[in-house]
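[09:14] KT: can someone run the structure on this one? pasting the chain below
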Amino acid sequence: MGALIIGADFIVNQSERIALRFNISEFVIGATIIALGTSLPEMAASIAANLGGKPEISIANAVGSNIFNITLVLGVIFIITKKIHPHRDFFKKDTTWALVPVMLFLLMAIDGYIGRVDAILLLFLMLAYILFLLQDSPDLASIDLETREDKDQGFLWINALLLLFLGFIFVVGGAHFAIESASNIATEFGVSEWVIGIVMISFGTSLPELVISVSAAFKGKVDMAIGNVIGSNLANTTMVIGLSALVEKLPISLSKSAFDLSTMTAATIMLIYITANKLYSKPAGIALLILFALFIDHTIQSMVH
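[09:31] RB: done, structure tokens below
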């Protein structure tokens, strides 16, 4: 799990440097480069799980990560940050992109599996979001060549690309060991692979989002922190599940996973309500952490029984 986090850290740091070279806004960096970077552990873990014949872990990891990102990550950010005044209107511009993938995923799961056609549609949705963000960011068009050359000071492409490659090696290797370890624990204690995926692996792979978002919030970069959560959740639902389903179709039981899927949907609706009313406050953080506590309690109860 440590390799996953170290690898993600390498990837995020170098991706951010590349993005900053082009003077892209904090939100766009958070919602694309950092969100995709921090979602790499989820992608690697889910693909490795499906390749290893453990498809339940693939979907459980993505669902669990979405729950952790909204309830734990945002909950902690709202509680520790004194004043939150985002520059961006998240409700107007971004919450549709948080809800639509969840609704589509639930519709796709009705027939009992996520197939390759579903996967391609989910991946196109991620592409649409990236195009939306690029069109919505005036910073890209306004930067001139001279300013870009200034950004090049001290920036070496070869170093950035080498560290990115090293990050990928850590992430893929770490994912393999995380899946094997979690699977062994599940077998040892008679715990289902779904439970292992939705708690142990999803928490481990969500740690980069937690660390980076909290760090960004402490530095006053709230747009980047919230952008990271929204972008990461979109990446989890579209790319993590989509890329895993391209390898082999993913079976899912709506009845068996009803509580976890309902929690993910409830968390997304709470996010929309908070952004619509601009409730970026400690009470909102406490409400999100209560939902997180209910999720953990239900998971522990299911392990006991």
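[09:33] KT: thanks! The chain has a mean pLDDT of 81.
[09:34] RB: yep, looked fine to me
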